[in-house]
Amino acid sequence: MPWRWNRHVQEAVAAYLFLLPFALSLLIFFGYAFVRTVYFSFTDYNLFESPSWVGLQNYLAIIQDNRFLLALRNSIAFSVIVTLAQTALALVLAVVMNNRLRGITVFRTAYYLPSVTSSVVITLMFIWMFQRTGVMNYLITAAIVYRPVILTFLGLTLAAQVLQVLWERWRGRPAGWFEASLLFVSLVLAAAGTGALWVAGVTEPVAGVEPVRIVWLNTRRTIPEGGGWWSIPLPLAAIMMLNTWTTAPTFMLLYLAGLQDIPKELYEAAEVDGANRWQRFRYITVPMLRPVTFLVMTLGLIGTLQMFDQVAVIGSAAPLESVITLAYYIYHNAFPAGAMPRIGMASAAAVVLGLLPLIAVLIQRRVVERK
Amino acid sequence: METVAQTAPAAGRPRPVLDPAAAARRRWARAALIYVLLLAFSLLFVGPFLFAILSSLKDNPAEWPPRLDPPQLNPANWRAAWRLGKAGGGSGLFGQFAPGAVVNFDVTYFVPEGRTPHPPEVTISRRVPGAGIGAVVPDAFAADYAIVSEVVETARKPAEGGVLVTYSFTIRHDGQGPAVDRLPLDLLVPIGQTFHSATLAPNRIERLGRVQSWNNITPGLVPYVFHNYNRVFNENYSRTTGKNLFLAWIRNSLFIAGVKVLTTVIIASMSGYALARLRFPGRNALFIFILFSMMIPGQVTFISNYLVLRDGVFGISRLFGVDTLLNTFTGLIVSGLCGGSAVFIMKQFFETLPRELEESARIDGAGPLMTYSRIVLPLARPALGAVAILTFQGAWNEFFWPLVALTAPQDKLLLTVGLLNLRRAYGAVALDWGPLLAAAIISALPIIIIFLIFQRYFVEGISFSGIKG
Predict the structure, then answer these.
(1) Of the candidates B38, B420, B451, which has its C-beta nearest A120's C-beta?
(2) Chain A interface disruption, residue of B38, B413, B414, B443, most A CBs within 10 A
(3) CA of B2: which chain A residue's CA is closest?
(4) When comparing pLDDT for B136 and A267, which is higher?
């Protein structure tokens, strides 16, 4: 029918017009750029002279460059560890947040604060907190000083809880080991008990503790110490903490939306069957959230592989080898301070960086499908 | 108070059942415990910000042990700063040292038994304010116009193990010179005689307690409390144009973010609609290509993009008489018209809209453009809001691409790149944390305020990009 055909053409033309600006910018600033990066990786381009073909030379050069290998190692370690940590933290936050309590949105707002702030600002605050006389070291010092008090408090809580649960059960009332009402009483009792012991002088803060002066950033220490290739530089570990802290809240929102989609009936049925809290979480929540987990991990891997800002802002505050990532390595080779740009090597490294998220997603898909 | 639906007791449980009062008690306790947990997490996420804001007021944010009560938060000092600001000839809010100023200042020392009290030696130093970018030497120093009276002992009070001796002196402006911004003060006393208190708390105590030093004893309230913030704005000027750098950076970032929000909202809604609703050859391929582009880090493609801007987007810019788009706002805008994720969000949203409206419009004879602008777009407000907010946040916080595409001159930088320059300027020797923290907090404030106002859109945006992905 000519009329229908006409309709289709009209629709397609409209679609192309609608898409024109976006497609054009995508083509120039992504498609063309991507192809050119691959091309540059086989040339000796330096931004000024016209490029000439050198085959695989750049790839051989980066493989022999110790800094590249370190960057690759750091990027992969960073990506894997941060993705796992932030996914776990996001899930925990979302489960706590998934309670219909008054004022819960206030907490959601508060949690999301690190995620809206720019990485440059966050990194500046972070360098400040992790300096030798910073808040982090102060908190560690405080934990050492008050260790006896803290341990007493925890011990008393545990004892009070066990006694109360046993008492309740003896009276024929159901009580799990983490029963909240009892735990609340236990905490209050333990606080009172610890206070009394402190006043009585039985448990006291340790006197004469040397202030902790861990150098977090400007150091070549690793975790585990001296582990060679398989150990993580301390500054990188500090950035991992930072990144987990900033991105977990975003993923918490995704999990929260996922949690609210799980039918309540599932939990009710499980409760009738006598499943406890942990079992319900393990056998209902986690499997039902699998699509969200896949998404969160994918976004996490993509995001963490791009880590650049933190390295750039930390700058001279940490040895480059300890924090360098692939993203920074590429930038560093494209615009080296006081040297000719090594576009070929930068592009070769860029191709590797471009492959990483693809590989990561493929592996992840395998794992998810196998389950 | 409502509590969790999950905790409602299920009927027919084979376990012993609690009486209603006990069950209610348990629900209450559980809610209370969850609040405690929520509060603990809040401390984890908000605590660092609050502590950074507090510390940004301090003279030395890197002090050990970190205190929670800096003198800048002490109302007694606010009153003193206000009074001294007025005494110096300025206003209570913003002080100065102007002709006609008469500034009375008291300082009290503790003198241990067996020592003779000694009046402090008063110096008005020619201190240059800190070392920002292109820090300018002030054209006038208070030292050139200040006349210091004799230091007299005005009170002596016995104290445990010694005496507290109060000295007073007056600093006048000679009435000839100009008004000066700051009146710095150094006091020197013999060793053993320790500082006790003064009209205004000193900024530093140095040389084993012998020297007490004030940045400005006629500050007025605002420069006293927000000393570091003042420094950020007053110490950073462009060497070529003399513009106030920090203000310029904020303006640039606002401008670029605003333009990007506009272009993104327009382009993403058009593209998202086409992808979600219109049928055309190559739709799936294009969608996969967009997803692919979202997976690839910007560091993979920036070299070519840098060259494209350098050559004026294939020479097109030469038609407008511009050789290169590097280091221009135009270049930054052209290269970041619309992100793939914004298109993705819009597409996801349009797919959730019921088709009936569009179909009835089509039956009425409306073409795609008409349907889009009259029917679909008005319905898309929540998604557009989400895209706008997320784009603004992304543009405001963007760092890598501006660091490549817009690096000079100083007063054209965006705020994030500017912050990196500040970090270099104040971190050349040892990090001068006061202005750095203050600058970080100022640059975080707009986005935090926008987030607090529009947080619903943030949350929706995240959900749109997530759930159906």
Answers:
(1) B420
(2) B38
(3) A101
(4) A267
The answer to whether residues A359 and B316 touch, using CB atoms and an 8 Å cutoff, is no
Those residues of chain B that have pLDDT short of 50 are 1-14, 467-469
Token code pair at residue A137? 């070291």
Chain B residues inside the 8 Å CB shell of A28: 308, 313
Backbone CA torsion sign across A264, A266, A270, A273: positive
Instruction: Kindly provide the ipTM of the predicted complex, given to two decimals.
Output: 0.91
Q: Do B2 and A180 lie within an 8 Å CB cutoff?
A: no
Note whether A181 contacts B28, CB cutoff 8 Å. Answer: yes
Q: Are residues B207 and B260 in the same domain?
A: no
CB atoms within 10 A of CB B21: 8
- For chain A, what percent of residues have pLDDT higher than 90? 60
Residue with tokens 């991105």: A247
Nearest to B420 among A16, A37, A313 (CB): A313
Taking contacts as CB-CB distances below 8 angstroms, the residues of chain B near A32 are: 304, 308
Based on the fold, state whether residues B200 and B278 are members of the same structural domain. no
Task: Write out the H or E segment, with its range, that includes residue B197.
Answer: strand B194-198
Within the 275-314 window of chain A, which residues sit less than 8 Å (CB to CB) from chain B?
Answer: 280, 292, 295, 302, 305-306, 308-309, 312-313
A307-345 pLDDT per residue, tens: 999 999 998 889 998 999 999 999 999 999 888 899 999
Q: What is the pLDDT of residues A300-312, one digit of tens each?
A: 999 999 999 999 9
Q: What is the pLDDT of residues A143-190, one digit of tens each?
A: 999 999 999 999 999 999 999 999 988 988 878 888 888 888 899 999
Residue with tokens 């799980």: A262
Instruction: For residue B304, give the CATH number of its domain.
Output: 1.10.3720.10
Q: Do the domain assignments include residue B40? A: no
- φ/ψ of A232, rounded to 5, equals -100, 130
Domain boundary residue, one of B159, B187, B221: B221
Please state, in angstroms and rounded to a whole number, the distance separating the CA atoms of residues B2 and A104: 12
Q: What is the pLDDT of residue B346?
A: 93
B196: exposed, middle or buried (C-beta count within 10 Å: 0-12, 13-18, 19+)? middle
Whether B12 is covered by a domain: the verdict is no
Torsional class of B175: left (φ above 0), alpha (ψ -120 to 50), beta (otherwise): left
The dihedral through the CA atoms of B223, B225, B228, B232 has a sign that is: negative
**Whether pLDDT at A95 is above 80:** yes
Residue A257 and residue A90: Cα distance in Å, rounded? 12
The answer to whether residues A8 and B279 touch, using CB atoms and an 8 Å cutoff, is yes
Residue-level pLDDT at B10: 45
Model pLDDT for residues B374-399, shown as the tens digit of each residue: 888 898 988 999 999 999 999 999 99
| Chain A closest-CA separation from residue B196 CA (Å) | 26
Residues of A in contact with B340 (CB under 8 A): 26
Q: What angle do CA B302, B303, B308 make, to 5 degrees?
A: 90
| CB nearest to B5's CB, from A37, A181, A264 | A264
Three-class SS of residue B240? coil
Q: List, in order, residues 6 or more apart from B372 with CB less than 8 Å away.
A: A18, B270, B273
* Total structural domains within chain B: 2
Distance between CA atoms of B301 and A334, rounded to whole angstroms? 12
Distance from CA of A87 to the nearest CA of B (A): 14
Q: Min CA distance, B240 vs chain A (Å)?
A: 23
Residue B457 lies in a domain: yes
Distance CA B114, CA B209 (A): 19
On whether both B460 and B400 belong to a single domain, the answer is: yes
B367/B443 same-domain check: yes
- Identify the CA nearest to B357 among candidates B375, B373, B374: B375
Domain of residue B279: give its range.
245-466
Spatial contact of A351 and A41, defined as CB atoms under 8 Å apart: yes
Residues B365 and B308 in one domain: yes
